[in-house]
């Protein structure tokens, strides 16, 4: 399988604007001046991601809150809401797995698999944020959700 380079852009905190992220960082830094910037970010993101963000923006993880100005907060916020990088390689199809993510199941009708936001738009299988055990369970869910979806579409065609 041939692999082409892919550029990705991730918004790690989609429910917050860049300004809200920057304001949060600045506020915590002001209230907790002894906290490091890594301590502050770990309040928002997992440790490994926070560490990578700081490396990406070239800010030392041990930078103390009392030295964090608006410019630094905005730089970090920009990266958190628009983290861009190149995927240079994969471990191949043999090691490919999905661990989570996808369309929030609260946004679909579980009896029909139809979107609650857009009529006649359906989501099934691994495109949904459903995580299960390995060993064929994803196939069982894919088939079951496809069955529900197909039956609903069929009913609508009558």
TrEMBL record:
Protein name as annotated: HI0933-like protein
InterPro entries reported for this sequence: BaiN-like, BaiN-like_dom_sf, FAD/NAD-bd_sf, RsdA/BaiN/AoA(So)_Rossmann
PANTHER family attached to this UniProt entry: OS12G0638800 PROTEIN
Domain RsdA/BaiN/AoA(So)-like Rossmann fold-like: 83-151
């Amino acid at each position: 399988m041939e692999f082409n380079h892919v550029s990705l852009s991730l918004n790690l905190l989609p429910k917050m604007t860049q300004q809200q992220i920057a304001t949060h960082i600045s506020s915590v830094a002001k209230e907790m001046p002894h906290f490091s910037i890594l301590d502050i970010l770990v309040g928002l993101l997992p440790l490994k991601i926070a560490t990578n963000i700081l490396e990406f923006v070239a800010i030392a993880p041990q930078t103390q809150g009392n030295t964090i100005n608006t410019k630094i907060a905005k730089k970090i916020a920009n990266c958190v809401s628009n983290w861009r990088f190149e995927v240079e390689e994969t471990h191949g199809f043999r090691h490919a797995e999905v661990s989570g993510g996808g369309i929030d199941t609260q946004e679909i009708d579980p009896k029909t698999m139809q979107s609650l936001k857009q009529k006649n738009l359906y989501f099934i299988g691994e495109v949904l944020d459903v995580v299960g055990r390995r060993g064929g369970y994803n196939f069982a869910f894919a088939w079951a959700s496809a069955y529900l979806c197909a039956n609903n579409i069929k009913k609508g065609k009558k």
